[in-house]
Amino acid sequence: MASTLQTTFSLDFETALAKFVAHGPVKNQEALEDAIFDLLLIAQTANGDVSPLLAALTCKTNGLLEAVLTSRNDPAFTFRRRVLKAVQKPSDSPNPAFTACVQRLGSFFFCLPRSVTLNHNVITKHLSFSARLASPDSLESEYFIAKKEKTADPVPPKHPKPLNPSKRKTRFVPLDLFKEDTPQTKSRRKATAQALPEKPPSPTVTTNRPVAVPSLSEQLKDCLEAYFIACLEDGVHEIAFQDLFKNLNPPILAAPSGPSTRGPQPTEPPPSAPEAPAIELPKSKAKSLAENALAPHDIARYLGETTKTTLGDWPVVVSQRGIKHLRYYVARDKTIFSRIEKMIRQLSLGCFTESNHAKLLEQDRGVPIYTADLGGILRLIYQIDFGAPTGANFESQFIRIFGVYQAPEIDLDFWKAVGAHLGGRGDEYIRRCTDRPESRVRPKRAKKVAPLVYPPMDVSHWNHQGADVEVDEAHRLDLHRILSLEKFVPLSHTFFDAIQKFNEASFMFSVAPPENQIIKYPSSCLVLGRSGTGKTTCMVFRMIGLDVAAKKSGQTLRQVFVTQSRTLARKVRLYCAQLMQTETDAVIASAPKPPQGLSLLDMDENAEEEGVLPAKFSELDDSHFPLFVTYDQLCKLLEADFNLEFNPSPLPPARTARAKNKKISARQPLISFDYFDSKIWPHMDHKVKRGLHSALVYSEFMGIIKGSEASLGKPRDHLDQSEYENQNNRSLSGDVTERSRVYTLFEAYLKLRPSTSYDIADRVHLLIRTIQDQGVPGNHIDFLYVDEAQDNLIIDAALLRTLCPNPHGLFFAGDTAQTISVGSAFRFSELKAFLYRLEREDAHVKRGGRPPIDPHFFQLSTNYRSHSGIVNAAAFIVSLLDSYFKHSIDSLAPEVAHVDVTTHKPLFFSGMRNQADFLRLISNSSSGRVELGAHQVIIVRDDKAADALKAAIGRAGVVLTLYESKGMEFNDVLLYNFFTDSPAADTDWRAMLFAKQENRHFNSRRHSILQSELKSFYVGLTRARERVWIWEETYHGYDMETLLVTNDLAASHKTGGVVPQLATTSVADEWAEQAKEYFSKSKYLEAEFCFRKAEMGWWADVAQAYEHRQEALGLPEKQTDRLSILLQVAQTFDRLAQEADPNEDYESIRLLFSNAADCYIIIPEHEPAALAFLRAGKYNQAAYHYRMAGKFDEAVEVVKFHNVDRELAENVTYAAKFVFAGRQDVPSLHKAWKLCAGKEEFLEFLQDNGFEEQRVNFLDSITDYEESAQLLWDSGDYVSAVQRFRQARSPSARRKATACLLDGIRAEIPFATGYLNPPDNLSELFSLIDKSEMSIDEADEVGMFRAVICLQTQDLEQHAWKHIEAENARCALLALDAWTQTEAPGSIESATADHVADVLLLCQQYGSVINFVVRDAYFIDDPDILTLFGISSTEQAVEPESQDITYQRIVQPRSFIFAKASTSKTRDSKPESQLDPITLSKNE
């Protein structure tokens, strides 16, 4: 290459090229721009081949090629045109310079940041081209093909050949998740080259014929054209320019100098295409999504990374029934299993022999069915099918294995029917299944062949002119089950190991191309399809693909699946966990396991599964994802963050820590449709609501007036009357007069509903406003999947879009049947338009950060559950709606069935008035019993018709109304008197008949009743999977019957003919499964009926209890026996839970206890409610209701041994301590003590709450007499205190006993009282005196006290002088005051002069002592003086948090100032009794 450069380049080009070196002359960005322009100017005018110029740009400096080719000046455009012109020149193989250029540009585009928006085709082409180059034989095979074409003799082809697998490697990718081949995948298989036709195909050849795969040169040219267009996108050149500038001016590091190692050097060969780098997702999503959202090519790569490699050249899929057969032999006979495995591996390699590729039938009537001899009587049955995607816009043949059968049990007629039915897809399909390439010779007469590859075949070409299909009636429904309902699992290298660990339902199965396209779509999508078309499957497989790939990269995607049904969310979560284990080939210990047998969690819509969700949205972490929640649960998580509370029940919620927050805005109850229908609708004006159905009116309220896009931002969150009446005709109520009536009812609704109530629209409006004000709490959602979107309001999309601002992360799926059902206000077209407008209001879009990205709309029109007999009739009804009532439904492509069972068309029985004929119809042909099977149902118009029919036929089968049947499916449906009871007149139906058959004008306004009637008829038809019968006692349905029969969409029973017996026999398992379905739809009576048919008495009683609860809750609150009925229901739930078999699901038993508790608290009966909650494992509620019942021992046990909310636990514990302490008995005190951290905390608690007596009793109980004595001393109980001090028997206690004794005596002998009338306990105190424990002074003071109470004159005089000399003012004052009450002062009249002098001297001393005391300004604060005056001083804090202390004085009744203190207090604050102390402030 170096020599080539020297001889080809001009000096100017070499000079220009030399500037692009690290640390070279280019030092700033302006210089770089000039250098690139000069280089391009020279390159556009350079003579000769352009490939050496590309090679030089590629090898010179890393980033130079990208910067040059992404430039947007005129020389760059000219140079790119030269390159494209050079690529178009014919050549045997691509020039390596062009190949390297494509690789470098593709890698550059692949690594661009997400802020740069590229066409998805750019990344797809890069991955495809890189994978093809990575094959070790890619270039060699191109060269070989070209060489062979030159030497081969030209032979005109008789028929365009398919892609020859002997010349072109083929690859099957599982139909659920696939991607382009990777180098590792390519190297695992032997390469085969593609055989290209030597001449162009004739123009007469049909487009369905096989065509050649583009050559590598053509693919290279295609890539360059796409890349050069992408070069012009905003931001592309700027990034390439900056990268090159960094490479030319690398940072100078403080390291030893040496040769540069940055990027490939000029002498290195062109770099090969790099592997796709693992995307690095932030662990915590930022608020700005423009930089952090996954781009479409990232999503495509993630989805592609889950593809499993196949065993051989032939793709193989195995039915779930076949997997069950394999697992049987794994457990029973591993030798046979090994033979089966060996045979399947042999088939996957394309090694066909006479023994493993024998036709089951000698003469094929369609697609051949083959058998493989497994030894003995065992045979493997399979077919060669067509339609496996190869990842390059082609599809290949593949092997479909049905299972392992014993030869004598193989029903040849059935398998003949299978081949014949498949042949009904047409001659082209048959040819693609039966064509084989020339085989290569193999030993033992084995033929080694590879699958043929063709362009995809349009499914619309099926069922046209194919094989002559004549299928026995007995086999048609079995055909439907094996070809439509059966799932097929792709064979991979891990398949045989995985089936030994996981059952057949745990594998991701193959899906058809339309579903696969949705799964692989790299951006947001809206998917519309009936139940059974694969919507939920697409969601789950897409979630798993992204989750597995992200976790392999060490990241976690925040994916959330949202639906309205709690049971559906749980089912999908469990199913996804099962599939995740098989995809990762690892048993996940923490994965939720589905219960064995029945579980209320799978049936009860109100059942909450514990421990699955955190308390708040902001608390969601990586461990919670992928997350499966109901819309209600998602809203609750948000409400917890915003301190909002919506309680759907009219009952007060159990107290929790959150409920105590005063900021919470609690609203209840929820105005659901049931609440509206039972408690509000009956009170509305009968004249206004005449002719209107409550379901339609409620849907107008929620879906249009309050829940439409137009209601957002309204001051009162709803449309006013003029706005509603001016709505377009998409509203359910098309007539203006009717809309006026509806709005009048709406105004009445606002007045009749409880003031604190809310409806579903109120909740969404408040959440949207709150998020607008406060933002999304926590992290955003990366990918959001909304199933059954028709059950949501349009405004719900605004809330969900806020939670998931990723424009590529939205997935809304809805049910075609439900969007046109009675009462629905949802239109997918409105959702699409709303999302369109929301996207253009996005902040990043408005400021130009990214272009608007709208979800792609998909319709799944192939129904895998119902056959063509039902699907075609339903599609015809939809066409009538679309033709005569525009905008009443979404305009969609007609639905088609996967299996054509034309003989099972809807069957009309008109004019059938004989009751005996009807009983015969619903009887069993074998037993003669009048009894429908488990999967059969009778559907009537309304409750009145249902009650009448039940009275006529008894419990011969399940009878539902049309409204009750919504969302359910059955094998067989009998529509009873649908047209007879129709509110539409015969003239309405006849007008439609004439309009359709005779092209007469149809007045949609005059016959508007047919809009809802057609929708109802559609609902009735589509409830059936297999058969529909329409029984009419009159001929009111004759016009519709004629319309369907003449279009070959229905059949009529001949009048007077024998009525067939159509009832089927069901086994117990079928009855149980159907009971479960009824239970999940809250059809408890029907569930009870089915459970009893299944001989499951306990479960039947459970269903009956649910029905009784539903009836009891619907009773008026003022009904006198309502509470007694609820008590019976509660006791029934309680009893059933206790009587449950030990093998029953624990969660079911837990929910029964919880139901019992909920009923108990309505009454209220707190104690049994608490016990039921405890048994249910709801410990917060158990603790709360035990507390409410006053059962604190039980409440404490719950708090002690179970996980209870912290604040609630503290509340219960404090209340229990208070109650236990209040009981005063020692055992209760010890219970309270155990609730504290220690003795000191308990004593503090007792003190804080005024439990003084309890403090003493407690200390006595633990023999802490010294401390209890101190408490008694402090409280003034001196006798008891002294006694306990002496019980303590410690030296300190003895000293304290004496001090306490003296304090008691001092307190009981206050100043200026009647000393001769001492209190009774004073004598007790004197009786406790033990002088051996006293000092001389203390004994002397006791002597003084004895003299005081006895008024002993001489002793008092002696004590007075003694204390005066000792300057003990307190004792001197007391002795002198007592002396004044003796006879001494009054005896001076007859006393001697000396005696008089002594008396006067004592009087003088008395005055002096008083003067001495009161002259001290702080004498009143002296504790000794206060005690003497009968006053005690206390201190108290104003508030616990305050540091300010207030002092109070308590005046005892014996105090000489008590009377004065009493008169100084206000009237309100006077003591209640004259014996009560008076409290004075310090200033009083």
- Structural category is alpha/beta
Indicate the radius of gyration in whole angstroms.
Answer: 47 Å
> How many beta-strand runs?
29
- Beta fraction: 5-15%
The shape, in one word, is elongated
Largest sheet: 7 strands, mixed
Number of helices: 62
Q: Low-confidence stretches at least 5 residues in length (pLDDT < 50)?
A: 1-8, 136-211, 252-291, 440-444, 464-469, 654-663, 1437-1442
- The first-to-last residue Cα distance is 112 Å
- Secondary structure: helix percent: 40-55%
What does the average pLDDT come to?
78
List its traits.
about 1500 residues, alpha/beta, seven-stranded mixed beta sheet, six-stranded parallel beta sheet, about 50% helix, elongated, disordered N terminus
How would the blueprint of this fold be written?
Layout: H1 2-8, H2 11-18, H3 29-45, H4 51-60, H5 64-69, H6 74-87, H7 96-110, H8 120-134, H9 138-151, H10 183-187, H11 216-230, H12 236-248, H13 289-292, H14 296-304, E1 316-319, H15 320-332, H16 334-348, E2 351-352, E3 358-359, E4 369-373, E5 378-389, E6 395-406, H17 412-423, H18 427-434, E7 440-441, E8 447-448, E9 453-454, H19 473-485, E10 488-490, H20 495-498, H21 513-520, E11 525-529, H22 535-552, E12 559-563, H23 566-584, E13 627-630, H24 631-641, E14 644-646, E15 665-667, H25 673-680, H26 686-689, H27 694-706, H28 721-725, H29 736-752, H30 760-774, E16 783-786, H31 794-803, E17 810-814, H32 816-819, H33 828-840, H34 843-846, E18 856-860, E19 862-863, H35 868-884, E20 896-897, E21 907-909, H36 915-921, E22 936-940, H37 943-953, E23 959-961, E24 970-976, H38 986-997, H39 1009-1021, E25 1024-1031, H40 1038-1046, E26 1051-1052, H41 1068-1080, H42 1084-1093, H43 1097-1113, H44 1122-1139, H45 1146-1162, H46 1166-1176, H47 1179-1188, H48 1192-1201, H49 1206-1223, H50 1226-1234, H51 1239-1248, H52 1252-1261, H53 1265-1275, H54 1278-1288, ...
Parallel strand pairs: 1-6, 11-17, 11-18, 12-13, 12-16, 14-15, 16-17, 19-20, 21-25, 21-26, 22-23, 22-24, 24-25
Antiparallel strand pairs: 1-10, 2-8, 3-4, 4-5, 5-6, 6-9, 7-8, 27-28, 28-29
